[in-house]
Each structure stands twice: as C-alpha cells, then as structure tokens.
Design brief:
The complex is a heterodimer of chains A (about 120) and B (about 110). Chain A has about 120 residues and is an all-beta fold. Helix content of chain A is about 0%, strand content about 55%. Chain A contains no helices and 11 strands. In chain A, a hairpin with a 2-residue loop joins strand 7 and strand 8. Chain A starts with a strand and ends with a strand. By secondary structure, chain B is mainly beta. In chain B, strand 6 and strand 7 form a beta hairpin. The chains are: A mainly beta (about 120), B mainly beta (about 110).
Chain lengths: ~120, ~110
Amino acid sequence: DAGVIQSPRHEVTEMGQEVTLRCKPISGHNSLFWYRQTMMRGLELLIYFNNNVPIDDSGMPEDRFSAKMPNASFSTLKIQPSEPRDSAVYFCASSMSGGNTGELFFGEGSRLTVL
Amino acid sequence: GESVGLHLPTLSVQEGDNSIINCAYSNSASDYFIWYKQESGKGPQFIIDIRSNMDKRQGQRVTVLLNKTVKHLSLQIAATQPGDSAVYFCAATGGSARQLTFGSGTQLTVLP
C-alpha cells in the first residue's frame, strides 16, 4: 500500500484565495483525521471522520475552514478565504481502529504558505 | 483538558549510546500514551504505545516507561543510530485517538 497520500505537497497562495487540500487514506481504514502543525502550536487536530461522517470538528479554527469526505477513499480540507495565519503544514492521517488506538498513519503533509 | 510537554526541546547523543526522551502529562485521567517520530519533511510515524495498566512496554530497540504517580512518560532508544535523528512527540488521551493531545516534540540529534 502506498500509505496516506496528500496533495499538493506545497502550496503558495495569496491572501484571500481559496485553498483545497486533498487526502487519500489507506484502503480499508475507516477513520480519517486532519491535523495542522505549526511551530507555535504544534500538532492540532482539526477534524475527525469515522466511516466518512464528521464526528468531531471542534478543532476547526473558524468558518473559513471546511472539510468533506464524500467517500471512503477521498477527503478535502478547504480554506476560503485563506489568510497568512493559516500558513502551516496540514497532515491527513487514517486509522483502521475507529480512532480507538493511537496508531494513526500520517501522510507526508501539505505545506501551505499564504502571502 | 490535557496538556503534554517534553522536558527538553533538543537532545544530542553519540551514535551507539542510549537515548532517553522524557515527557510529562497533566491529566491524571489519561490512560493511553503514544510516541511518534517525525523525520524532516515527513509526517509523524507511530513508534510505540502503552496503556495505563502497564508500567513498561518494549519494542524493537525502544522501550516506553510510564510512571502514573508523577505523570511521567519516557522513551528509551537503545544503541541510537543516525536514522533515529528526528523529532519525537509524546501524546496522551483519556479516550480515543481523536482526543490525543500531542506534546511539543524533542529534536534528537545523533552525533557520529
């Protein structure tokens, strides 16, 4: 298996633009997580899906952020409009345990820079 | 809520020596703990976990020790190798993985 696949790996955009990050979880995994990593705040959970249903989105910073999981093999995280403070590395992770263990499989991340 | 912190942001060890990375957590209700390794430019990678009904768990060259009395967790790496150079995160939860709180990370550098 190729692991969790994220795209794009790097994105540079201007403030106000829409950003869409994509994730393909490991086949057979039923849980998907979006994390954000910054130097100041470390790794923060944004949203968690189980069986394609959003279970906990309390970490989503504000209404500019939205996430979808239309099927078991694809998820998107969208920021509209983007702001410089959204600059971070965004990780997608999947798990086959419904989130009941800590063994999450992370993608290599999407590094977002908002100018 | 939970807060998790590592004692040292950086640690340098000689190749072949043992490494010990320490972590403290605040919530006495936390009952599941995990260590992750993150190499530069990559996502975190699961290393080992431990539940609160255990004090020690061993993997391949790694050992995690849990002291619930003082709410302290450590990761020991035996015979540290250059490939062990990375940032190491501890994480804790009193529930499921979606409630994991990650520490700030310790950068381990292995010196030749």
